[in-house]
Write a structure and sequence with these properties.
This protein is α/β, with parallel strands linked by helices. The protein has a 7-stranded mixed beta sheet, with helices on both faces. Strands 8-9-10 form a 3-stranded antiparallel beta sheet. It is globular. It is 37% helix and 20% strand. The protein binds pantoate (PAF).
Length: 295
Protein backbone atom coordinates (compact mmCIF):
# COMPACT_ATOMS: atom_id res chain seq x y z
CA UNK A 1 0.00 0.00 0.00
CA UNK A 2 1.34 3.41 -0.94
CA UNK A 3 0.24 6.52 0.95
CA UNK A 4 0.99 10.17 0.44
CA UNK A 5 2.85 11.72 3.35
CA UNK A 6 -0.09 13.56 4.96
CA UNK A 7 -2.30 10.49 5.19
CA UNK A 8 0.29 8.81 7.41
CA UNK A 9 -1.04 9.28 10.94
CA UNK A 10 2.01 11.18 12.17
CA UNK A 11 3.28 12.72 8.96
CA UNK A 12 3.97 16.40 8.42
CA UNK A 13 5.73 15.83 5.07
CA UNK A 14 3.92 17.26 2.07
CA UNK A 15 4.29 15.15 -1.03
CA UNK A 16 6.36 12.10 -0.19
CA UNK A 17 5.01 8.67 -1.08
CA UNK A 18 5.21 6.39 1.96
CA UNK A 19 5.55 2.70 1.08
CA UNK A 20 5.79 -0.10 3.62
CA UNK A 21 5.71 -3.26 1.52
CA UNK A 22 7.93 -4.81 -1.11
CA UNK A 23 5.40 -5.44 -3.94
CA UNK A 24 4.23 -1.79 -3.89
CA UNK A 25 7.80 -0.50 -3.82
CA UNK A 26 8.75 -2.73 -6.74
CA UNK A 27 5.66 -1.70 -8.73
CA UNK A 28 6.46 1.96 -8.10
CA UNK A 29 10.10 1.57 -9.23
CA UNK A 30 9.06 -0.31 -12.34
CA UNK A 31 6.52 2.37 -13.26
CA UNK A 32 9.22 5.07 -12.83
CA UNK A 33 11.50 3.05 -15.08
CA UNK A 34 8.73 2.65 -17.65
CA UNK A 35 8.65 6.46 -17.76
CA UNK A 36 12.46 6.38 -18.36
CA UNK A 37 13.08 8.01 -14.98
CA UNK A 38 16.48 7.48 -13.36
CA UNK A 39 16.10 6.27 -9.76
CA UNK A 40 18.49 7.53 -7.06
CA UNK A 41 18.53 5.61 -3.78
CA UNK A 42 19.64 6.59 -0.26
CA UNK A 43 19.52 3.68 2.20
CA UNK A 44 19.36 4.79 5.85
CA UNK A 45 18.48 3.54 9.31
CA UNK A 46 16.48 6.72 9.92
CA UNK A 47 16.92 9.37 12.60
CA UNK A 48 17.91 11.66 9.75
CA UNK A 49 20.25 14.61 10.14
CA UNK A 50 22.11 17.01 7.87
CA UNK A 51 24.50 14.29 6.62
CA UNK A 52 21.54 12.26 5.35
CA UNK A 53 20.10 15.45 3.82
CA UNK A 54 23.35 15.90 1.89
CA UNK A 55 23.11 12.30 0.57
CA UNK A 56 19.54 13.00 -0.54
CA UNK A 57 20.60 16.21 -2.31
CA UNK A 58 23.43 14.32 -4.04
CA UNK A 59 20.97 11.66 -5.26
CA UNK A 60 18.55 14.39 -6.37
CA UNK A 61 21.29 16.00 -8.52
CA UNK A 62 21.96 12.71 -10.27
CA UNK A 63 18.50 11.16 -10.65
CA UNK A 64 14.91 11.98 -11.60
CA UNK A 65 13.31 10.35 -8.55
CA UNK A 66 14.80 9.74 -5.10
CA UNK A 67 13.89 6.76 -2.92
CA UNK A 68 14.96 6.87 0.73
CA UNK A 69 14.76 3.70 2.78
CA UNK A 70 14.37 3.78 6.54
CA UNK A 71 15.08 0.43 8.14
CA UNK A 72 16.98 -0.31 11.34
CA UNK A 73 18.58 -3.50 10.10
CA UNK A 74 18.83 -6.07 12.91
CA UNK A 75 21.37 -8.28 11.13
CA UNK A 76 24.13 -5.67 11.24
CA UNK A 77 23.99 -5.30 15.04
CA UNK A 78 25.98 -7.70 17.19
CA UNK A 79 24.85 -9.07 20.57
CA UNK A 80 25.04 -6.31 23.20
CA UNK A 81 25.07 -3.53 20.57
CA UNK A 82 22.50 -0.73 20.44
CA UNK A 83 19.76 -2.26 18.21
CA UNK A 84 17.01 -1.77 20.81
CA UNK A 85 17.93 1.76 21.75
CA UNK A 86 18.95 2.93 18.24
CA UNK A 87 17.25 6.36 17.97
CA UNK A 88 14.04 6.52 15.92
CA UNK A 89 11.80 9.44 14.94
CA UNK A 90 9.72 8.62 11.88
CA UNK A 91 7.72 11.83 11.96
CA UNK A 92 10.83 14.01 11.90
CA UNK A 93 12.43 11.75 9.25
CA UNK A 94 9.42 12.24 6.97
CA UNK A 95 9.65 16.00 7.40
CA UNK A 96 13.40 16.11 6.60
CA UNK A 97 12.90 13.75 3.65
CA UNK A 98 10.10 15.93 2.25
CA UNK A 99 12.04 19.15 2.73
CA UNK A 100 15.05 17.74 0.87
CA UNK A 101 13.15 16.43 -2.12
CA UNK A 102 12.69 12.70 -1.44
CA UNK A 103 9.93 11.31 -3.67
CA UNK A 104 9.41 7.95 -1.96
CA UNK A 105 10.13 6.68 1.54
CA UNK A 106 10.44 2.91 1.73
CA UNK A 107 9.90 1.77 5.31
CA UNK A 108 9.75 -2.02 5.29
CA UNK A 109 8.84 -4.11 8.31
CA UNK A 110 11.42 -6.40 9.84
CA UNK A 111 9.08 -9.42 9.39
CA UNK A 112 8.98 -8.76 5.66
CA UNK A 113 12.73 -8.27 5.27
CA UNK A 114 13.59 -11.26 7.47
CA UNK A 115 10.62 -13.65 7.65
CA UNK A 116 10.83 -16.68 9.90
CA UNK A 117 13.30 -19.18 8.49
CA UNK A 118 15.33 -16.52 6.64
CA UNK A 119 18.75 -18.05 5.92
CA UNK A 120 20.57 -16.30 3.06
CA UNK A 121 23.40 -13.81 3.64
CA UNK A 122 26.03 -11.99 1.57
CA UNK A 123 29.63 -12.00 2.76
CA UNK A 124 32.40 -9.87 1.28
CA UNK A 125 35.52 -11.69 2.34
CA UNK A 126 38.43 -9.26 2.08
CA UNK A 127 37.64 -5.60 2.66
CA UNK A 128 35.23 -6.39 5.48
CA UNK A 129 37.79 -8.26 7.60
CA UNK A 130 39.83 -5.46 9.22
CA UNK A 131 38.95 -2.16 10.94
CA UNK A 132 35.30 -2.28 12.11
CA UNK A 133 34.96 -5.85 10.82
CA UNK A 134 37.44 -7.02 13.46
CA UNK A 135 35.53 -5.66 16.44
CA UNK A 136 32.05 -6.12 14.94
CA UNK A 137 32.05 -9.64 13.48
CA UNK A 138 29.04 -10.15 11.21
CA UNK A 139 28.41 -6.42 10.86
CA UNK A 140 29.32 -6.13 7.17
CA UNK A 141 27.57 -9.42 6.39
CA UNK A 142 24.40 -7.79 7.75
CA UNK A 143 25.06 -4.55 5.85
CA UNK A 144 25.81 -6.28 2.52
CA UNK A 145 22.77 -8.52 2.91
CA UNK A 146 20.29 -5.75 3.62
CA UNK A 147 21.75 -3.44 0.97
CA UNK A 148 21.53 -6.16 -1.67
CA UNK A 149 17.93 -6.90 -0.63
CA UNK A 150 17.06 -3.19 -0.81
CA UNK A 151 18.78 -2.90 -4.20
CA UNK A 152 16.69 -5.85 -5.45
CA UNK A 153 13.48 -4.24 -4.23
CA UNK A 154 14.13 -0.61 -5.22
CA UNK A 155 16.11 -1.38 -8.40
CA UNK A 156 17.95 1.96 -8.35
CA UNK A 157 20.25 3.30 -11.06
CA UNK A 158 22.49 5.00 -8.52
CA UNK A 159 22.86 4.74 -4.75
CA UNK A 160 24.54 7.26 -2.45
CA UNK A 161 26.49 6.37 0.72
CA UNK A 162 28.42 8.56 3.15
CA UNK A 163 32.22 8.51 3.24
CA UNK A 164 32.14 8.59 7.05
CA UNK A 165 31.45 4.84 6.84
CA UNK A 166 34.38 4.47 4.46
CA UNK A 167 34.78 0.71 4.92
CA UNK A 168 31.04 0.21 4.35
CA UNK A 169 31.25 2.23 1.13
CA UNK A 170 34.16 0.08 -0.08
CA UNK A 171 32.41 -3.18 0.86
CA UNK A 172 29.28 -2.12 -1.05
CA UNK A 173 31.36 -1.08 -4.06
CA UNK A 174 33.06 -4.47 -4.04
CA UNK A 175 29.76 -6.33 -3.71
CA UNK A 176 28.32 -4.37 -6.64
CA UNK A 177 31.35 -5.17 -8.77
CA UNK A 178 31.70 -8.83 -7.69
CA UNK A 179 27.98 -9.59 -8.13
CA UNK A 180 27.67 -7.66 -11.44
CA UNK A 181 25.00 -5.27 -10.19
CA UNK A 182 24.18 -2.51 -12.63
CA UNK A 183 24.13 0.27 -10.02
CA UNK A 184 26.43 3.27 -9.76
CA UNK A 185 27.68 3.75 -6.19
CA UNK A 186 28.39 7.35 -5.21
CA UNK A 187 30.40 8.32 -2.11
CA UNK A 188 29.43 11.59 -0.47
CA UNK A 189 31.79 13.62 1.80
CA UNK A 190 31.53 13.61 5.60
CA UNK A 191 29.29 16.34 6.99
CA UNK A 192 30.50 17.94 10.24
CA UNK A 193 29.01 20.15 12.89
CA UNK A 194 30.49 23.65 13.11
CA UNK A 195 32.90 22.43 15.79
CA UNK A 196 34.15 19.57 13.59
CA UNK A 197 32.30 16.58 15.04
CA UNK A 198 31.27 14.23 12.22
CA UNK A 199 27.46 13.97 12.14
CA UNK A 200 26.12 10.61 13.25
CA UNK A 201 22.79 9.42 14.65
CA UNK A 202 24.81 8.00 17.55
CA UNK A 203 25.98 11.50 18.62
CA UNK A 204 22.54 11.60 20.23
CA UNK A 205 23.82 9.27 22.97
CA UNK A 206 26.64 11.62 24.06
CA UNK A 207 26.39 13.70 27.23
CA UNK A 208 27.51 17.33 26.92
CA UNK A 209 30.88 16.47 28.48
CA UNK A 210 31.37 13.40 26.25
CA UNK A 211 30.51 15.47 23.20
CA UNK A 212 33.18 17.98 24.20
CA UNK A 213 35.76 15.20 24.53
CA UNK A 214 34.62 13.60 21.24
CA UNK A 215 35.85 16.69 19.38
CA UNK A 216 39.38 15.35 19.90
CA UNK A 217 38.64 12.73 17.22
CA UNK A 218 38.08 15.24 14.41
CA UNK A 219 40.71 17.70 15.65
CA UNK A 220 43.38 14.95 15.81
CA UNK A 221 42.49 14.01 12.22
CA UNK A 222 42.93 17.64 11.15
CA UNK A 223 46.37 17.72 12.82
CA UNK A 224 47.32 14.44 11.14
CA UNK A 225 46.25 15.77 7.76
CA UNK A 226 48.37 18.88 8.33
CA UNK A 227 51.40 16.80 9.36
CA UNK A 228 51.08 14.71 6.19
CA UNK A 229 50.72 17.88 4.07
CA UNK A 230 53.91 19.13 5.75
CA UNK A 231 55.74 15.97 4.61
CA UNK A 232 55.29 13.35 7.36
CA UNK A 233 55.29 9.89 5.73
CA UNK A 234 55.47 7.55 8.72
CA UNK A 235 52.15 5.83 9.54
CA UNK A 236 53.52 4.96 12.98
CA UNK A 237 54.20 8.61 13.82
CA UNK A 238 50.76 9.72 12.63
CA UNK A 239 49.06 6.92 14.58
CA UNK A 240 51.01 7.87 17.72
CA UNK A 241 50.15 11.53 17.26
CA UNK A 242 46.41 10.79 17.06
CA UNK A 243 46.46 8.26 19.90
CA UNK A 244 48.32 10.69 22.17
CA UNK A 245 45.69 13.38 21.52
CA UNK A 246 42.79 11.01 22.16
CA UNK A 247 44.26 9.53 25.33
CA UNK A 248 44.35 12.98 26.94
CA UNK A 249 40.57 12.55 27.35
CA UNK A 250 39.42 10.37 30.23
CA UNK A 251 36.23 9.09 28.59
CA UNK A 252 37.83 8.11 25.26
CA UNK A 253 38.86 4.52 24.66
CA UNK A 254 40.56 3.92 21.32
CA UNK A 255 39.41 0.91 19.31
CA UNK A 256 41.71 1.56 16.36
CA UNK A 257 43.72 4.26 14.64
CA UNK A 258 44.80 2.95 11.24
CA UNK A 259 46.34 4.28 8.07
CA UNK A 260 45.21 2.27 5.12
CA UNK A 261 45.40 2.27 1.34
CA UNK A 262 42.20 3.99 0.16
CA UNK A 263 41.51 1.27 -2.45
CA UNK A 264 42.55 -1.97 -0.74
CA UNK A 265 42.11 -0.96 2.93
CA UNK A 266 45.48 -2.67 3.59
CA UNK A 267 47.89 -1.08 6.08
CA UNK A 268 50.52 1.09 4.43
CA UNK A 269 54.21 1.05 5.31
CA UNK A 270 54.66 4.58 4.06
CA UNK A 271 52.06 7.29 3.54
CA UNK A 272 51.62 7.64 -0.20
CA UNK A 273 48.17 8.98 -1.17
CA UNK A 274 45.49 7.92 -1.67
CA UNK A 275 45.28 6.77 1.95
CA UNK A 276 42.64 6.94 4.64
CA UNK A 277 43.32 7.68 8.30
CA UNK A 278 40.54 5.79 10.06
CA UNK A 279 39.62 6.09 13.73
CA UNK A 280 37.12 4.19 15.88
CA UNK A 281 36.79 5.09 19.54
CA UNK A 282 34.36 4.77 22.39
CA UNK A 283 33.45 8.04 24.05
CA UNK A 284 31.86 6.83 27.25
CA UNK A 285 29.60 4.01 26.01
CA UNK A 286 29.17 5.45 22.51
CA UNK A 287 31.22 4.07 19.65
CA UNK A 288 32.12 6.70 17.06
CA UNK A 289 34.04 6.44 13.80
CA UNK A 290 35.64 9.16 11.70
CA UNK A 291 38.26 9.40 8.98
CA UNK A 292 40.34 11.66 6.79
CA UNK A 293 40.78 10.72 3.15
CA UNK A 294 44.15 11.94 1.84
CA UNK A 295 43.94 12.04 -1.94
O1 LIG B 1 24.86 3.33 6.89
C1 LIG B 1 23.75 2.91 7.28
O2 LIG B 1 22.91 3.66 7.78
C2 LIG B 1 23.43 1.42 7.19
O3 LIG B 1 24.56 0.65 7.42
C3 LIG B 1 22.75 1.04 5.86
C4 LIG B 1 23.66 1.27 4.67
C5 LIG B 1 21.47 1.83 5.70
C6 LIG B 1 22.39 -0.46 5.87
O4 LIG B 1 21.52 -0.75 6.92
Amino acid sequence: MSRRGPSHPTSTATDVDFIEDTPTMRLKSRSLKAECKKIGFVPTMGYLHEAHASLIREAKKRADAVVLSIFVNPTQFGPGEDLDRYPRDLERDMKIAGENGVDIIFHPKSEEMYPEGYSTYVTEETLSRGLCGRSRPGHFRGVATVVLKLFNIVEPDIAVFGEKDYQQLMVINKMVSDLNLDIEIVGSPIVRDKDGLALSSRNEYLTEEERRQALAISSSLVEAREAIAAGERSPRKIREMISKDLLLHKDIRIEYVEIIDARTLAHVKEITPPVVIAVAAFVGKTRLIDNAIIK
